Amino acid sequence: MKHIIHDWDDERSMKILQNIRSAMNENGKVLICEMVVPEGNEPSPSKILDIQMLVCTGGKERTEDEFRRLLESSGFRLTRIIPTKSPVSVIEGERI
Fold first, then answer.
1. One digit per residue, pLDDT tens: the chain, 96 residues?
2. Pick from 45, 47, 50, 37: nearest CA to 81
3. Contact at 8 Å (CB) between 38 and 63?
4. Distance between CA atoms of residues 54 and 23, nearest Å
């Protein structure tokens, strides 16, 4: 999924991921292409987009820890985050 989860709050994002999980086989993985907000007060374009998502859609950009908690609450385990040359990373979740 690319640029989907950031459009939604945690509750709705969890529902989307749970629906995906129920449609996968037991060895399935989910790939989420989103910006990952860095921890701390360091400036980042993802922090500006976080405010924009809140105002426009009620969604949010998430930190690594927030993605981990969201995936775990939806029946996945965060297996890795793959940075790219763009601001977007690939977040991999494995079905548990």
1. 999 999 999 999 999 999 999 999 999 999 999 999 998 888 888 898 899 998 999 999 999 999 999 999 999 999 999 999 999 999 999 999
2. 37
3. yes
4. 29
Which is the catalytic residue, given 6, 60, 62, 95? Answer: 6
Q: Is 3 a catalytic residue?
A: no
CATH of domain 5-95: 3.40.50.150
DSSP 13-62: HHHHHHHHHHHS-TT-EEEEEEEEEPSSS---HHHHHHHHHHHHHS---E
Residue ranges of the domains in the chain? Answer: 5-95
Contact present, 62 and 34 (Cβ < 8 Å): yes
